[in-house]
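Risk register update: the risk that structure generation would not scale has been downgraded. Supporting records follow, first protein first.
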Amino acid sequence: MVKCVYGLEDISEGEIIFNKQKVLGPSYNLIPGYPDMKLVSQDYYVLDNHSVEENIKDMLIGFTDDYKEKRNRKILKLLELESIKHLKAKNLSSGQKQRVAIARALTAFPKLLLLDEPFSNLDKILKDKLFDFIIHEAQKKHCGVILITHQAEEALKYADRIGLVIGGKIAQIGSKESVYYKPKNLKIAKTLGDYNVIEYTDFEKTSAYYKTKKRALLRPSQFSDCTKKEADISVTVINCFFNGKCYELFVQTRSGKEIIIYYHHSKPKEAQLFFKIE
């Protein structure tokens, strides 16, 4: 899909509009791609016979020498490429080539940056640093960024809006909060992480959820401590697991349904807990 947006592949139906102009594929353009877009893909588009530094400076044609040097140093530091800046790209590892490809795309920030799972070989700290830079540049220059990823956590962490593609079609699109907390169906819910399906009969009769007379789809993070009187739901702990970020309570509702709740500390088996739904 992202290659169609960039004009590297033709589309069989519909159309893509960018800056009020129709994006055309290789059947119409001798040289596919658009100068106002940059694509970072898993194909590592780099100049193999050029050094890392030359790959970056190649993207700065038309800028002043002073700007070239400042931008070059900034991008080299950002991508942690300073120690290998004189090496030719053909002699780099796949992870290093990936960083050079990213550097080329970010050197002269485009009007639309297309990221097709570009950070698969990068560690988490470098990935976070890159996204911080990309978000800052995009906001400052009023540019768009499209990220293609199979990692739900990555999409939820970095995106403003999320679109889920299932079976080649957009199944849901909206703010990440609305798609995460109000998925249109169970397949979408499952794609974005842990979820619970709870029947209305499991809720306390004083709860608004009980009065809807239908099931509720809730994330494990939507439960907060409360008193029995305030509770939307009461549960009994079956088991408790620590996942490195929080405790996952494996609990049972009054009808015997088993659900997962994220909690801030450990709870013993058989403990009875009361929760409000956020």
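Supporting record for the second protein:
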Amino acid sequence: MEKQHTVTIIGGGLAGCEAAWQVAERGCKVCLIDMKPQNFSPAHHSEKLGELVCSNSLRSNDQTSAVGLLKEEMLRCNSILIRIAHVTKVPAGKALAVDREIFATQITEIMEAHPLIEIKRQEVMEIPAPTPAGTPIIIATGPLTSDPLAESLAELTGKKRLAFYDAIAPIVDAESLNMDIIYCKSRYDDGPGDYLNCPMDKDTYLKFIYELGNAECMPLKDFEDIKYFEGCLPVEVIRSRGDDTLRFGPMKPVGLADPGTGEDPYAVVQLRKENIAGTTYNMVGFQTKLSYTEQQRIFRLIPGMEKAEFARLGSIHRNTFILSPELLQPSLQFKVRPDLLLAGQLSGVEGYVESAAMGLLAGINAARLAKDLEPVVPPRETALGSLINHLTESDPARFQPSNINFGLFPPWEKKIRKKFRGQERAERALKALTTWQVEEKL
């Protein structure tokens, strides 16, 4: 007879909820613990589970892209979060963006309704001791793990915790935008035109970057060491690297010809729908650590945003992660405590989808451990397997969080033309995933 112990999952974010679903769907009981509303991290505001605190985009849905392939693999592994994302999506071209309020509401309702999931609202101050039965515990408290629990984690691993900084982009009220200036268009007319574009001529751009470069930023605390994640740099940090860095980054105008002139502007600020109703928009790529007063002053220099009202201003927060290559097994179990698994951004992945993917794998293995089955590791050819390989096989001296990208996949054994590589990667990955699922009876 299979033992029926309850798997404990600490953290009700994307990774924790995905892990809870995977465990429960395999017939195991779950105790999902989340500290909200007893306590909130600096970036969280909602009592709901699965709250998105930065962008509302889960990035490309194209299976020939690395993140699109990862989402497809997750769907084939019965991911609840990717299914909910498709149900709550808002127009965003080839990207999968969601209405974050509806997204979190549906996650919460599904977790609360599942007969095998019990939700406790309380803060966990330290990592629980092993149970006599060795019942699995998943830590999925995210990059904003509270200080007491992070200290407990540091004590367990014997390593100083590492930290980098992640910045949040502002959200603007749609009714405050000047649509006589702003136009709707997707880059290269790719899609129905799901983005709003604020065009700049050269003089306007130069004035904007001057003000941005001289703006006041929020001060960091004395003990904080700046280590930004390169894939999510604050807009003012990008600007500090040169006058044209924004024009070749988040303000790239190529393929966004102004319908009024028929020509590409000198620079463009893009806005993406934040909710299905289209009442708010996210400033794409404009994560920032500017002071609130400076954000309002400088961002109102953007054409069409002169009277912008902000539903949320940008902010910056510390993201914590562990040195996974030294500490984790490929099953996401800690080497020093096999009953303890890690999921989400704490493991050293970056991004919503990647965090949920680690929750999915931790949930699968926690359920298997609870049933006295051997844990599994996805094939190296898959996006899931490539993320695991990054976490466990990277050089510890150079380890940094990473999004999924094709650079993490196995090298090509033969030369393949660049335009066919994405499709080839997808075909190989999905074939390997199917074989793995059959062999492991997943």
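The first helix runs from residue 14 to 25. On this basis the risk owner (M.S.) recommends closing the item.
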